[in-house]
User: Fold this.
Amino acid sequence: MSSGLVNIAYLVAASLFIFGLKGLSHPRTAVRGNLLGALGMLLAIVITLLDQHIIGYGIIFAGIVVGGGIGAVLAVKIKMTDMPQLVALFNGFGGLASILVAGAALVEIAGLQGTVGAIVLDAQLSISTFASGLIGAITFWGSLVAFGKLQGLTNDGSVRYPADQIVKVVLAIVILVLGYMMVIYPDSSTPYWLMVIVASVLGVLFVIPIGGADMPVVVALLNSFSGLAAAATGFVLFNTVLIVAGTLVGASGIILTIIMCKAMNRSLANVLFGTFTVTEGGPSADEVYGGKVKSTSADEVAMLLEGAKRVCIVPGYGMAVAQAQHAVRELFDLLEGHGTLVEFGVHPVAGRMPGHMNVLLAEADIPYERLKDMDEINPSFKQIDVTIVIGANDVVNPVARTDPDSPIAGMPILDVDYSKTVIVIKRSLSPGFAGIPNPLFAADNALMFFGDGKKAVEDMVKSLKDELG
Amino acid sequence: MDSFAMVFTIFVLAAFIGFEVIAKVPPTLHTPLMSGSNAISGIILIGAILSAGSQYTWLTAGLGFIAVVLATINVVGGFMVTNRMLEMFKRKD
Assistant:
């Protein structure tokens, strides 16, 4: 096939990706959008297989069979509560593939120098290869650390060590020096692989200090990087569809990253390199909670729910950990059957990745028109009789509104404290990620329901069934 | 226009299109958008196919093979899991 025709086919594939992503940003067109994207991918793959440089198909098809099998099994078997890990893993695979493709291309182009039609080894090529390897390595290792934290294999919290920022700066300088070597010795692949190794260390150090609750930002950012790594490899291979598709993913990831940062009222730099400065002057847990926390029982909650006209459920990461979404669905059905209006107030950064709670509630068959964004539900809390908070803490802490010195000051929160009664399901009074006590738990209209999220909701369902007789 | 300027132009225009097309995503779709775009970043598969297929040396073919496996996991797994999630959202319409 002529290269003209190949490029036209790539243009069609790239257009399908654009329509696909556009579709994915609207609920009604999302399924079709995903299929259009898949169609574009199929077209790009088939056209590439016809490329005249390909002399053997054995390795390619073996790879596709193995990868396709693994991918299909993962996609079918994965539990919805484990989606953040899967997305992190996929981000990482994209990054590693970019490192390998750019590295193989460098070896091949350098070896073909002097033959007819060889690509010129110039600074632009070296810099593109450098970018593929650098972004790819940070994406791969950063994603592996994120995966480890999400899966509970490594410490989920923020791991700090002395002079961490200086170590990162030194590594960055070493990477730049190796990049310069790549430009000076364009026909050697050694500086490239050395750079990949150093960038791998940087990737690990980059995500290790970031705590669990900041994971939505990191996962979105690494999603963006996995696209940019592919785009950089497109520059190495002079391949337009790689550049367009990679850049689209890069843009989409950046948009999600910005949304997540806004939802925490923090800058990206603060999430990545800063840390919550725990204010010394803040009130202690004893001062906030001392004698004021009221604990409740399933029977009492059932009585409150029976009399409620309007109920809001606010899910947090605790719901995902306890796998409580199906129990929540039962409670939802019971209340709706009783004529109560039940809505869900979902904070943008609830959970460990963008949209985490929405996916879990959709899995449990909650109609999505009952899932309300923060801006949508906040004006309604004054009319809500009972709000049930399941495993959320910082995102419902009224201190964000009231105390300008608090580490979460100015963070948009769900105003659950405005509803008539708030029931908080939580294992203990332990602080959330911000490390500060939550005066909501001691508020006059708040009742604490201590225990595992799933068990607690199941108990409520049982008591409510008895109550409604 | 030299070829680098040309591909760079494509890059910048694609970034603008990306920002315009995806600007407003409802939170319900944040996760499917990520897994779906993940599948699209599996486009690196075509670079991997070229490395694995041109078989310039055993090294490049081997690197290509691993890259084909990883990229195909992204493509197949990404599109399938996105579809699975979106079907969950759709049923309640």
